[in-house]
């Protein structure tokens, strides 16, 4: 076998002079920063949103309140679980929530609608709240959000 010559050589040194650091004074011409075209755009809220429509303060507050109510048997909030079928906000700020339960024999069938009504009525700007409990269409797992399915290990 023949001996190969190394393709690189190693040079050992005691110290190296550091490279010069760039300084702002070293720039010959002042650099003008262009205005960011998104400046203020992302922070600005849409102008003419009705508070009772999606994106409005009352509607979003109701959705946030619903996301704080958890099913006692399943560690997922009732909104992501798909138990909320609709949220309607009238121009007078009356809120009507249409919801169901996982089954008519649910242990919280008597207390859950009352809790939903209390939480929704506590949202700032809501005049009064009404909860309509429906069984048609029946709830099924297809109504769950992806977050809920992930939480339950179904994805």
TrEMBL record:
UniProt-listed SUPFAM superfamilies: Fe-S cluster assembly (FSCA) domain-like (SSF117916)
MIP18 family-like domain boundaries: 62-132
Region (Disordered): 1-28
Regions that span the bilayer: none
InterPro entries according to UniProt: Fe-S_Maturation_MIP18, FSCA_dom_sf, MIP18-like, SUF_FeS_clus_asmbl-assoc
Basic and acidic residues: compositionally biased ranges: 1-10
Pfam families the UniProt entry points to: FeS_assembly_P (PF01883)
Protein name: SUF system Fe-S cluster assembly protein
Organism expressing this protein natively: Novosphingobium pentaromativorans
Phylogenetic placement of the source organism: Bacteria, Pseudomonadati, Pseudomonadota, Alphaproteobacteria, Sphingomonadales
């Amino acid at each position: 076998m023949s001996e190969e010559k190394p393709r690189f050589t190693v040079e050992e040194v005691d110290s190296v002079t550091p490279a010069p650091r760039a300084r702002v004074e070293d720039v010959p011409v002042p650099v003008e920063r262009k205005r960011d075209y998104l400046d203020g755009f992302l922070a600005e809220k849409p102008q003419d949103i009705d508070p009772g429509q999606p994106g409005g303060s009352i509607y979003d507050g109701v959705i946030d309140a619903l996301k704080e109510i958890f099913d006692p048997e399943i560690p997922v909030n009732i909104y992501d679980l798909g138990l909320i079928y609709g949220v309607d906000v009238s121009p007078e700020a009356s809120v009507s929530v249409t919801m169901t339960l996982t089954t008519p024999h649910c242990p919280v069938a008597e207390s859950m609608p009352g809790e939903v009504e209390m939480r929704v009525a506590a949202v700032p700007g809501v005049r009064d709240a009404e909860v309509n409990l429906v069984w048609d269409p029946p709830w099924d797992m297809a109504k769950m959000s992806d977050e809920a399915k992930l939480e339950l290990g179904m994805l």
